[in-house]
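Data card: per-record layout.
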Amino acid sequence: MRHIESTLLVTVSGRDRPGVSARLLSTLSVFPITLVDLEQVVIGGRLVLAALLSVDERVAPGVRRERVFEEVRGAVEKTCVDIGMEAGFVSGDGIDRLRSGTDERLCVTLLADPLRPGALGAIASCVARAGANIDRIERMASYPVTSLELVVSGGDDATLRNDLAMEAANQGIDIAVQPSGLHRRAKHLVVLDVDSTLIQGEVIELLAEHAGCAEEVRQVTEEAMRGQLDFEESLRRRVALLKGVDASAIEAVRDNLVLTPGARTLIRTLKRLGYECAIVSGGFTQLTDALVERLGLDYSVANTLEIVDGKLTGGLTGPIIDRKGKALALQRFATEAGVPLSQTVAIGDGANDLDMLQTAGLGVAFNAKPVVREQADTSVTVPYLDTILFLLGVTREEVEAADREAEREADGEQ
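The structure for this 414-residue chain is written out next.
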């Protein structure tokens, strides 16, 4: 941090329309000044543009700074009158510090439906109590949820993370805290759990409906997802209940799988960004293979049901994909994709996803059980899978712009 003297902060605000920034910069161009910082935002049809100015002594050595800034004020005020805007000025005495870029910064992403002023105020208070500062706030999305991104610097990292997690729970909103920087957009492999993450519901429970043992299977599933029962034991117990079910039940379930809202948007956008996408499931290859084809996924691993003479035997073939197996699969996919683990994202909801979430560079608990939310890097409780994009720094506007461009290209090919 360094003290900055002889600066002038100019703010211009008013109804947004084309040419405002061009007029202001044109007005400033005749003076011997440099732009130290510049930021513009449009919200609710209103534009706010702020420019931090300094006298360029290389162009005008020995010039009186006070006189230059006085002339700048007069010129900007006249321009604002001409274009129907309002101008404000703060001298160097009112601008104490300029960030040198050496401070460690955190990116705090909020997800809420709806986002209320009190909740955001509580988050801002957390930041202040940790001795940190909010440098920038940017809207990432207005639907299906409201998402804001705060760039925060200074303060104690551990205190801030803990306080934000507690306040998010109190306010009923989701918060992700990540180091800011290029690496945040460099997570090139995303691995998703399947049941109750990529798709709605649990496949084995859907199969159990055909066997007439749905409630019994559901109870065992709940115990396993809460971490109260070893996953392999629970899986074998549940699969055993399917003994004798006709293999045609698999096809019926496969044809009726329902994707989680936002799943297609998430995968489609990630692929456009050059991400590798994978699924790791404690479910069954007889169903996950269809998802790979349906969504164009790059990698997949799951368990395999044993079928003999067109009937489920109640057993499995091959290695079991359990909690440890999911983490190993993520590592293998990362190696095959040439992606370091620090640039991977894992998304899941159950206790058997925990090793995978903790192995990844970013572990996201998606509508997860409490034990998973407590141990993951961040938690998302809204029912839209594409909100993960906002955690990666992708805005809703960017997603929609890419979709429109794809539609135009498709129309051009027809």
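Known properties of this structure: The two ends are 57 Å apart (CA to CA). Confidence is low (pLDDT under 50) at residues 94-102.

See the next section for split statistics.
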